[in-house]
Write a structure and sequence with these properties.
heterodimer; A: about 350 residues; alpha+beta; five-stranded antiparallel sheet; elongated; B: about 280 residues; mainly alpha
Chain lengths: ~350, ~280
């Protein structure tokens, strides 16, 4: 058991590209930390630096109070689960899990005890003689976990372990990973680009973008109070509606912020018949598209006063300018082309500075 | 086209059959010739059916030699050929797998230069560099020895290239997982890389064994002793006799014998090759 600390960690490649631009955070003993961000944000690089697979350009990484910058991966007392599992294809499951222990010269009976125990926890006991090629994706994933568990390391590192699985299996493995981590109470760092995984697994969520940490905190806290528009749009699905106040007629009563970005989550918008909630905001929309997913309905509306800016393409995961997403429970919803009014109460509003880098409390 | 399957298949099959006959007939003729007597063949009456002197011919050829010439029995030649061919195949595989390992998994200065230097030796087979190679072999006192037969031939750009291409398909996570499992470079090589390469090794062994077995020019230069003669040279010597009748039966028997080990290697290794293909999954 151990904590992990990162102090001013930087990574620059010889070609001058700075992948990690000074990262500080701390993962307490037994905590589950999730690094989340879009691809290319440096989250995997950061994890690999903790693992010792990438060198650290400057700064310090500590595991259990010991600075590990110069320590070989095998001696850092960590275990890693890879995205493609990286099982040894020519070894059976038993050997796959036992290999790391044998290399450390552990006595045979102890190896056997540990492997059998891990196989029992992961329900692999009947498959120990098989080779990875004969297993399904989910089973391989469990073997990869087993290989990490038998080592009884101080820290587990997960590099997008679920992204090669289909959606259903991903869900059940996600629950399993969480249970397992609780049970073993081992400090874990988990990298993912999936915000749902991030929200559900994390004790501490670290949102990264462009090699920097955007926000650190408890997942719900981040959901409730995102500090930048990047975090606001990234955490939560479907993404938060972001409205630039300057070119709109929306006025927030009680503030003089007319140059800023207003954020409203789709689930916080409600269809109303005229009355604007006290201190809140109402948006007049023309319904463009409706998506019904069963339990809820997504209504995409266009704000009439907003010029259509088809030429400006939105970033992935963001809505095109002028388009507002309303998420309403159930299967009822307006018809396409209908004019609706959606409103949000004041304490569900998020306000950011014009550059999106700062949250303004209202 | 699909409707006329029955007739559509007929022509290709005839062509294939003709091809097989063209390839197989000389082999059959050699086997048949080795079962008759020398006089019959020398008379120009080459029968197309097997004769009755087969055992006798093969006994003479392999074990005792014949009284008519001073040549060695072919048994010894086969042993010499086998040692050379296996030596070359194993040596080539060993050297190239190690160099490919270095080139793919380690970063050192001039790594790509090294690779290209190895690569351009493709243009330098032993026939091209025969004088300098002979000089060095002779300076090292390796004439008339198996090391002289084998060592100068074992550098192989082809095999290195093949292993390199294969190694580059191995996911880097596998290397990293080994690293985290506490396996150093040597352990990774023996525990992971070598078992994964079995298929490639088998395939290469087939090719390289036949390459080694078929060597003619190099053994001709390096060996002068009769007991180190390889079978490929042996055939030539049996045919080229002076002031005597060529022992065609023995020559044919030798040719048949010379064919057997490569055939055996192909047959045996093919099974391993297929097995490896089925079981290995990267």
């Amino acid at each position: 058991m151990a904590d992990v600390t990162l102090r001013n960690v930087r990574k620059a490649y010889p070609n001058g590209f700075e992948a990690i631009k000074g990262v500080n955070f701390e993962v307490g003993d037994g905590q589950f930390c999730v690094l989340v961000g879009p691809s290319g944000c440096g989250k995997s690089t950061l994890l690999r630096m903790v693992a010792g697979l990438e060198t650290i350009t400057s700064g310090e990484i500590g595991i259990g109070g010991r600075i590990v910058n110069q320590i070989e991966p095998a001696d850092r007392d960590i275990a890693m689960v890879f995205q493609n599992y990286a099982l040894y294809p020519h070894m059976n499951l038993y050997d796959n899990m036992a290999y790391g222990l044998r290399n450390r010269g552990m006595p045979k009976h102890e190896i056997n005890t540990r492997v059998q125990e891990a196989a029992r926890i992961l329900e692999l006991a009947a498959l120990l003689e098989r080779k990875p090629g004969q297993l399904s994706g989910g089973q391989r994933q469990r073997v990869a976990m087993g290989r990490a568990i038998v080592r009884q390391p101080k820290v587990f590192l997960f590099d997008e372990p679920l992204s090669n699985l289909d959606a259903k299996l991903r869900l059940s493995m996600r629950v399993e990973i969480r249970k397992l981590q609780r049970r073993l109470n081992t400090t874990s760092i988990y990298v993912t680009h999936d915000q749902l995984e991030a929200m559900t697994l994390a004790d501490i969520l670290v949102v990264m973008n462009g090699g920097q940490v955007e926000q650190i905190g408890n997942p719900l806290e981040i959901y409730q109070k995102p500090t930048t528009t990047f975090v606001a749009a990234f955490i939560g699905a479907p993404p938060m509606n972001l409205i630039t106040l300057r070119d709109s007629d929306i006025h927030l009563p009680g503030t003089n912020a007319d140059a800023g970005i207003l954020g409203i989550r789709p689930e916080d918008l409600q269809m109303v018949n005229g009355a604007v909630p006290d201190g809140g905001v109402a948006l007049d929309l023309t319904v463009e598209t409706i998506e019904r997913v069963g339990a809820e309905t997504y209504v995409y509306g266009q704000r009439p006063q907003q010029q259509r800016q088809a030429a400006i393409s939105a970033k992935p995961g963001e809505l095109p300018p002028g388009e507002i997403l309303v998420r309403i429970p159930g299967q009822q919803g307006p018809a396409i082309g209908e004019k609706i009014r959606a409103a949000a109460v004041r304490d569900k509003l998020h306000l950011f500075s014009a550059d999106g880098r700062k949250r303004i409390e209202i | 086209m699909v409707e006329h399957r029955r007739f559509g298949n007929l022509l290709p099959h005839l062509v294939l059959l003709a091809g097989v006959l063209i390839v197989a007939f000389p082999v059959y003729l050699a086997i048949v010739a080795s079962t008759h007597t020398d006089t019959l063949i020398a008379n120009g009456q080459m029968p197309l059916y097997p004769g009755t002197h087969g055992l006798e011919t093969y006994w003479h050829t392999i074990v005792s030699g014949t009284g008519k010439t001073t040549r060695q029995p072919v048994g010894g030649m086969m042993l010499a050929s086998l040692v050379m061919a296996v030596g070359i195949a194993v040596g080539k595989i060993a050297i190239s797998i190690i160099s490919a390992y270095a080139i793919v998994f380690f970063s050192f200065p001039f790594r790509m230069t090294t690779f290209w230097i190895i690569f351009i030796t493709l243009m330098l087979p032993v026939e091209v560099r025969i004088f300098p190679t002979y000089k060095i072999t002779s300076d090292l006192n390796m004439l008339d020895s198996y090391s002289g037969l084998i060592l100068p031939l074992i550098a192989s750009a082809t095999a290195t290239l093949l292993f390199r291409q294969f190694f580059m398909t191995i996911p880097k996570e596998l290397v990293e997982a080994s690293k985290m499992d506490g396996a150093g470079p040597i352990r990774f090589f023996f525990d992971t890389l070598l078992p994964l390469s079995v298929t490639n090794i088998a395939a290469l062994f087939v090719i390289l064994f036949i390459y080694g077995w078929n060597q003619y020019l190099w053994p001709l230069l390096i060996t002068t002793r009769d007991d180190m003669q390889t079978i490929v040279i042996g055939i030539k010597k049996i045919i080229d006799v002076h002031d005597a009748l060529t022992e065609w039966t023995v020559a044919m028997a030798t040719a048949v014998l010379a064919m057997l080990p490569p055939v055996a290697v192909v047959v045996f290794m093919q099974r391993l090759f297929v097995k490896g293909l089925i079981e290995t999954e990267k």
